[in-house]
Amino acid sequence: QLRKQLIKLQGSLAALDGRERHAAHKTLSAGWAMLKRQEEALAEQIISQSEVVCATLVSLGSSALRSRSFPMVVVDECTQATEPRVAIALARASGQLVLVGDQQQLAPICLSEEARDTGLSVSLFVRAVGSGVPPSLLAVQYRMHPLICGWPSAQSTTL
């Protein structure tokens, strides 16, 4: 409701004269600040009542999650993430950090040659496995019918 009122007021600015426009700008600034506080309070309430929070690596650094820690953080498709992004997740993990991925698939996208030279094109997952951390292989997947996944599985094991 407040957002609609602010948008409506913003749309009427052009029709206002100097003093009215100045007053409307002050009202808009205060209104947008109030809306932001309300949204942050609502996000805080939702997150604090949640047993599971799903987020992107970058959004773990957002104001809503910045002060939180979690007993377990699972990073899916970790082999595609650069180490600085995984570091955000690591900072939120008060207990376990689980890295999930397939080092035979896509590596992190690294467009900068300088970033590649510093090692950002190698994921933390690949570094960990290369350093001797034993990976666990999931032997059964439940997302695809066996007839569909059978042929690619057979072909990839013969390569």
- List the quaternary state of the chains: single chain
Tell how many strands the DSSP assignment holds.
2
Envelope shape: elongated
CATH superfamily of the largest domain: P-loop containing nucleotide triphosphate hydrolases
At the fold tier of CATH, the topology name of the largest domain is Rossmann fold
Rg result: 24 Å
Question: What is the second-level CATH architecture of the largest domain?
Answer: 3-Layer(aba) Sandwich
State the end-to-end CA separation.
59 Å
Work out the helicity level. 40-55%
* CATH class category of the largest domain: Alpha Beta
Number of helices: 6
Word description of this protein:
The chain has 159 residues and is mostly helical. The protein folds into two domains: 1-50; 52-159, 3-Layer(aba) Sandwich (Rossmann fold), CATH 3.40.50.300. It has six helices and two strands, in the order ααβαβααα. It has helices spanning 2-11, 18-48, 83-92, 113-117, 124-130, 146-158, and strands at 70-75, 93-99. A two-stranded parallel ribbon has the order 1-2. Strand 1, helix 3 (83-92) and strand 2 form a beta-alpha-beta unit. Helix 1 (2-11) packs antiparallel against helix 2. The chain is elongated and about 75 Å long. The N and C termini lie far apart (59 Å). 11% of the residues are buried. This is DNA2/NAM7 helicase helicase domain-containing protein. Residues 18-113 form the DNA2/NAM7 helicase helicase domain. One of its GO terms (molecular function) is 5'-3' DNA helicase activity.
